[in-house]
Design brief:
Length: 352
């Protein structure tokens, strides 16, 4: 995160700036697609996105920690710090400090964070799901609310509640793609996110998945189940797609880039014969570069239109004329933040 981004967001307190930088570091290490897409956002909105994803990444790292004996107390401590911080409006832990600042600046509903932590807790004990309906209760907290947290930061061209179902669906679509890509890694952690009824419909169970993972053998039944899961995932992407047009035009290239790249993971899985139990499917660097370049072109065009409109000049034919009505662009320019009094730091020392 550059000083320019923090300055543009009105974040001037040194400790708060350091907190946002910690969040950015988490995203840079773990979320290649999200991190790339975030660079297409207006500079003043990038710190908020890093805060939201940085916190989510931290919690996810806790529940995925090898061994597991420290997971429950670490997650409980994180949840307590979050709850107390949201109630007080400040926190000592840097990642939570940035998250609370973002929630306050953009009016993000605190229930989204509560629902997220509930799903993280379930990862400590729940190892499989009977159906997509049951899985949906998990993905509401682990993924749908991420889309809902993001919506105030991205901004919309109409009432936010109209865009909310699409944002939630896109969050779920992204996570279902992660589940499909990471079937083997999740199995190693003792989890199967593919619903049991979908697997059973193709003659697959946990034992067969484990055998395939351990021996490297392929099985047509597993391929059939994975193909069906991918088809379901693509349906969720189609449900979410209309929501892109409801976003603030200057934010659309960011989300469209993530949309295309994540869809590309499904394409890569298919092209690799659904071998996700044996290796991770990835989008090629050439494809990522092509999508990123397209996103950059769209970003420049959207910002040009926004500047032209702000200057009161006519917008060129064919350019988007949608006016942003809900979100950060409708707010006054951010004022310098009041420094948060320093307190003894609690909880984890390392935000990674």
């Amino acid at each position: 995160m550059t000083a320019r981004e923090l300055d543009a967001a009105g974040i001037h307190d040194p400790e708060l700036r350091a907190a946002y930088l910690a969040c950015r570091a988490l995203n840079a290490r773990h979320g290649k697609t999200y991190f790339l897409a975030t660079r297409l956002l207006p500079v003043d909105r990038r710190p908020a996105v890093h805060a939201l994803y940085g916190f989510a990444r931290w919690a996810d790292d806790i529940v995925d920690e090898p061994g597991g004996r420290q997971r429950e107390p670490a997650l409980r401590a994180l949840e307590q710090q979050l709850s107390e911080g949201l109630a007080r409006g400040r926190a000592e832990e840097p990642v939570i400090r940035a998250l609370i600042d973002t929630a306050d600046a953009y009016g993000i509903d605190h229930r989204h964070f509560t629902d997220f932590m509930a799903s993280m807790r379930s990862d400590l004990t729940v190892t499989d799901y009977a159906s997509y309906e049951e899985l949906g209760r998990y993905t509401h907290g682990s993924a749908a609310v991420i889309g809902l947290q993001m919506l105030p930061v991205l901004g919309t061209v109409g009432p936010r509640e109209e865009a909310a179902p699409y944002a939630a669906a896109l969050g779920v679509a992204f996570q279902l793609t992660n589940f499909l890509r990471d079937v083997g890694e999740d199995l190693d952690r003792g989890r199967v996110y593919l619903p049991a009824d979908l697997l059973a419909a193709h003659g697959v169970d946990r034992e067969l998945l484990s055998h395939s993972r351990a021996t490297g053998s392929r099985d047509a039944r597993i391929t059939g189940a994975l193909r069906a899961a991918a088809a379901h995932n693509r349906r969720i992407y189609r449900q979410a797609r209309p929501g892109l047009d409801l976003l603030d035009p200057v934010a659309r290239p960011c989300i469209r880039t993530a949309f295309v790249l994540y869809g590309g993971i499904l394409d890569a899985i298919e092209a690799d014969g659904y071998a996700v139990l044996h290796r991770r499917a990835v989008v090629s660097r050439a494809r990522r570069a092509t999508v990123a370049l397209d996103g950059l072109v769209r970003t420049v065009a959207a910002r040009t239109v926004a500047r032209t409109r702000a200057a009161g000049r006519p917008v060129a034919p064919g350019a988007s004329t949608a006016r942003h009505t809900t979100g950060p662009a409708a707010r006054p320019a951010p004022a310098p933040r009041t420094p948060v009094p320093e307190r003894d730091r609690a909880g984890r020392e390392d935000a990674s």
